Amino acid sequence: MPHAPPLGALLHRYSAGSALTCEPVEEGLLNRGYRLRTTRGRYFLKHHFDPDTADPASIARQHRATERLADLGVPVAPPLPGRDGRTVAVVGGHAYALHPWIEGRHRHGSQLTPGQCGRLGALLGVVHASLEHVMRTPAGQPPPGRGERVPPAREPERTTPTGRDARAERAPHPQHTPPSEAICPAAGPVPPAAPSVHATRATPAGPADPPARAEPAPPGGPAAPFESAAPFAPTAPGRSDAPAPSPDPADTFVLIDDLLGRVRRHRPADSFDELARHRLLERRGLLERHADRRPPHGGPVGWVHGDFHPFNLLYRGDAPAAIVDWDRLGVQPRAEEAVRAAAIFFVRPDGTLDLPKTRQYARAYRRAAGASPRELAAAVHRVWWERLNDFWMLRWHYERGDTRADSQFPASSALAVWWTREYDAVCGAFTD
Question: Which residue, 106, 111, 237, 285, has fewest beta-carbon neighbours within 10 Å?
Answer without folding.
Answer: 237
